[in-house]
Write a structure and sequence with these properties.
alpha/beta; Quinone Oxidoreductase, Chain A, domain 1; 7-stranded mixed β-sheet; 25% strand; globular; binds NADP nicotinamide-adenine-dinucleotide phosphate
């Protein structure tokens, strides 16, 4: 089968479309014929080994000289081709979607998927739309519902509102009954408002950390402010959720990158600052995928696709997300 493979860290030029052996599903695993796979910020972080610190702190994803798994890609939607021993929940022909995360392998014609990484695909969505959901949607859901505990009537600010995670976060925060402010570049303000935000802040003109407005919840997906600045616009009892971030340096990996803010947030939380809530590592979750499917099928949330690329141009797709300020999701069709 064809797959996008990478042997060592570097730019998207390291990604090659080659023939590899088709995976064989083991106990509790499903073989999926991938119809579409989404690109996430995670893919270029793993591709570049960026930041260096991640190579030390996340050895299940990052090897010393290259990614732990050769085939890139985490999010997928497709059709069950075969099932391994012990699998009774799915059968060949079922349409599914999911998130392989550290197993990687979605930028390929076939993917071997553990049962804990997939769910039935939402009805009424194309494979491209469904593939756009798992990692970004799960991150937004867990951040707002479980980590921040957003309540109806609260004010929520999403920094990075036009990105993959941000576009789901804006819609989910509205679904939870919040008043939502999205921070984005001016070209994306219209999109963020269409997704249901009550207000959009243009970060090229206004720094929300210096303004008078206060928020009950701030979800930071960019890591372009200090922890102190991010805490300033919180209401008493407000919660800051830090979920990583970091726009690409487009060259040599940084040493700390967005992890500097994440580590500061973890230390503050550990020393008892109740305002600070660093995102835990959120593993793929069939329960979260089932909840998202409910929101998607009821029309409460909709994936936003910027561009699609064929598998033969997967390197271009990753480069586009990394370098060119893609809007919402970039998807690869297989
Ligand atoms: N902890 C977790 O479990 C977890 C899971 C998933 C993702 N993440 C992290 O969350 C981050 C966001 O992921 P993503 O998939 O949404 O990335 P993405 O699709 O690449 O989006 C990044 C967004 O950042 C925005 N941005 C850039 N500079 C900005 C600024 N100065 N102020 C406000 N927004 C700015 C961009 O908007 P414009 O184009 O409008 O500039 C873009 O929409 C990533 O770094 C990722 O590593 C963490």
């Amino acid at each position: 089968m064809k797959a996008i493979v990478q042997q060592r860290y570097g730019s998207a030029e390291e990604l090659r479309l080659i023939d590899v052996d088709a995976p064989v599903p083991g106990e509790g695993e499903v073989l999926v014929r991938v119809r579409a796979a989404a690109v996430n910020a995670r893919d270029w972080h793993v591709m570049r080994g960026d930041p260096y610190l991640a190579r030390v702190l996340m050895p299940s994803h990052f090897g010393p000289r290259g990614p732990r798994r050769a085939v890139r890609g985490s999010d997928f939607a497709g059709v069950v081709e075969a099932v391994g021993p012990g699998v009774t929940r799915f059968e060949p022909g079922d349409e599914v979607y999911g998130d392989l995360r550290e197993d990687d392998g979605a930028f390929a014609e076939l993917a071997r998927v553990p049962l804990g990484c997939l769910e039935r695909k939402p009805a009424g969505l194309t494979f491209e739309q469904a593939a756009a959901v798992p990692l970004a949607g799960t991150t937004a859901l867990v951040a707002l519902r479980d980590v921040a505990g957003v309540r109806p009537g609260e004010t929520v600010l999403v920094n990075g509102a036009s990105g993959g995670v941000g576009t789901f976060a804006v819609q989910l925060a509205k679904a939870f009954g919040a008043h939502v402010t999205g921070v984005c570049s001016p070209r994306n303000a219209g999109l963020v408002m269409e997704l249901g935000a009550d207000e959009a802040i243009d970060y090229t003109r206004e720094d929300f950390t210096r303004a008078a407005r206060r928020y009950d919840v701030i979800l930071d997906l960019v890591a372009n402010h200090t922890l102190r600045d991010l805490l300033r616009p919180l209401t008493p009892g407000g919660r800051l959720v830090t979920a990583g971030g970091g726009t690409s340096a487009g060259g040599r990996p940084r040493v700390f990158g967005p992890m500097a803010l994440v580590i500061r947030a973890q230390l503050s939380a550990r020393f008892g600052d109740k305002r600070v809530h660093p995102m835990p590592n959120v593993p793929p979750s069939p329960a979260a995928l089932a909840t998202l499917r409910g929101h998607l099928e009821s029309g409460g949330i909709t994936p936003v696709l910027d561009r699609t690329f064929p598998l033969t141009r997967a390197a271009e797709a990753v480069r586009y997300l990394e370098i060119d300020h893609a809007r919402a999701k970039v998807v690869i069709t297989v």
